[in-house]
Write a structure and sequence with these properties.
28% of the residues lie in helices and 18% in strands. The chain is of the alpha+beta class. The strands form 2 sheets. A 5-stranded mixed β-sheet has the order 2-1-5-3-4, with helices on both faces. Strands 6-7 form a two-stranded antiparallel sheet.
Length: 174
């Protein structure tokens, strides 16, 4: 067992547990968008960013996929963490300006509207849950990420109807 502190709360976890798992065990809430307990940690949304101090050095990491290997101190609401989360919310909200989720997150982090140019009509914030459930759980690999940067989206290979799709609906469910 490894000892760590999360917001000054002492916690003991098994080596290899993630910071998010340790925080959950301690009753500390960390916001996530791309995390699902049935899937391997991915860290794509970055909203679960926390500040860790290890051997006297401090840095920001994604809590959902950062393994605990030794004693660390974790801060989930330091000024640096909150500024980082605020920027992440702004960027995601600009991608999906009509999504109620980002309007709620914006209010939580004191953002009235994103300062970046909004992308109209978009509701997908690229968390990857649909792609990952199709690949990891169903095993169909019918959808994937297409493109890069602001043009990135989820779709079928070459935008053709995928023969690999078994119409299970898992992608839509998550």
């Amino acid at each position: 067992m490894i000892k760590l502190t999360i917001n000054e709360i002492p916690v003991e976890v098994e080596q290899g547990s993630t910071v998010l798992e340790a925080a959950t065990k301690a009753g500390v809430s960390i916001p996530t968008l791309c995390h699902h307990p049935a899937l391997e940690p991915y860290g794509s949304c970055r909203l679960c960013t926390v500040e860790i101090t290890e051997r006297g050095r401090s840095r920001l990491v994604t809590s959902c996929n950062y393994p605990i290997r030794g004693e660390i101190e974790v801060q989930t609401a330091s000024e640096q963490v909150l500024q980082g989360r605020k920027m992440i919310v702004e960027l995601l909200w600009a991608r999906c300006p009509d999504a109620p989720l980002f309007q709620e997150l914006g209010a939580r982090y004191g953002i009235e509207k994103p300062r970046f140019e909004p992308r109209e009509g978009e509701l997908c914030y690229l968390c990857g849950l649909c792609v990952r459930i199709c690949n990891e759980i169903v095993g169909a690999r019918a959808i994937s990420f297409i493109g890069r940067g602001v043009d990135r989206e989820v779709g079928t290979p070459f935008y053709k109807i995928s023969e690999a799709c078994i119409a299970c609906g898992a992608c839509e469910f998550v």
